[in-house]
Amino acid sequence: MIIVFKTDASRAQIEEVKQHIVELGYEPRVIQGVERTVIGAVGDELSHRSLEILREMPCVENVIPIQKRYKLVTRAYHLQDTVVDIGGNKLGGGHFQVIAGPCAMESAEQFHQAVKDLVNVGVRIIRGMAFKPRTSPYDFQGLGTQALDILRQAKKEFGVAIVTEILGSDQIAPVADVADMLQIGARNAQNYHLLEEVAKAGKPVLLKRGLATTIEEWLSSAEYLMVNGCSQVVLCERGIRTFEKAMRNTLDLGAIAFVREETHLPVIADPSHAGGVKRLVLPLAKAAIAVGADGLIIEAHPDPTNALSDAAQQLDSATFAQALAELRPWVTLAGRHLEAEAG
Ligand code: PEP
Ligand code: MN
What we know:
Elements: E1 2-5, H1 11-23, E2 27-32, E3 37-42, E4 60-64, E5 84-86, E6 89-91, E7 95-101, H2 108-120, E8 125-127, H3 146-158, E9 161-165, H4 172-176, E10 181-184, H5 192-199, E11 205-208, H6 215-227, E12 233-237, H7 253-262, E13 267-269, H8 271-275, H9 278-290, E14 295-299, H10 317-333, E15 337-338
Helix pairs in contact: 2-3, 5-6, 9-10
């Protein structure tokens, strides 16, 4: 950390701050400038106590951290792209996955049809939520544990991998019994206790970016997963809240490009929850591929008009198939391999 003194800081005050720095376990290196004095406090900021307390001292103008608050997720820590294995399907390091499925399981018939249509065009990882985080308590909340049997059945019949969301710690064990990847949704992106618990489940985790989390906060949430034993983390940019109201959310394309550089973890985009309407899914998906996304997660429903949640943004099966075909050359151009062979 760098401690910047006010121009009128006295020698005695600087000496006192130096003592504090030593007591907190850092080595102080004093730099005497023309106008003011600066101390570089040398030491690992992650394992030592913070020097933020020095802001309290009247002679101190600013305390500037040098190290980031995350380590395991950085490229400096792990140079190669992490490849995440989702039930035998690789994502990252050039393996591009299009995860697709309905917003929620609504019935055995609806999910069966959805998976059948998606598998036909080569999708290998299916999304489908048993538990839905809804803004209104009066909206469809998902079928709950009843839906886990529907997931089990789909896995058995089609051999697909399953991604589904965890809303609370009590759901981890029953869901991990059937799911191949556990989703932490936008609303729980900073639920640190849940992140710690999910990390211990021994499954890959799809970590969505929160509605109003900075990249640093998002990566710190990923660090929670990694430091608690989960190295198989996929980041997902799903649009953030901005002043813009024309779309459901604002897909932060810059974040995708930035995070690809900053971390070794794969990052995918969710154009469905970002745009919030069918017609924006394809253009946003293309843009995400162009800035370096390692995959997509797209909502697809056999009968979107009658969907119980997110009806406006779910693609019907034929439109999804067409979109996937249109995205194929974009993935190739981006130097990735689309892991979706039509059967
Ligand atoms: C979802 O993927 O079903 C979902 C609710 O997404 P988000 O958490 O990004 O809103
Ligand atoms: Mn949805």
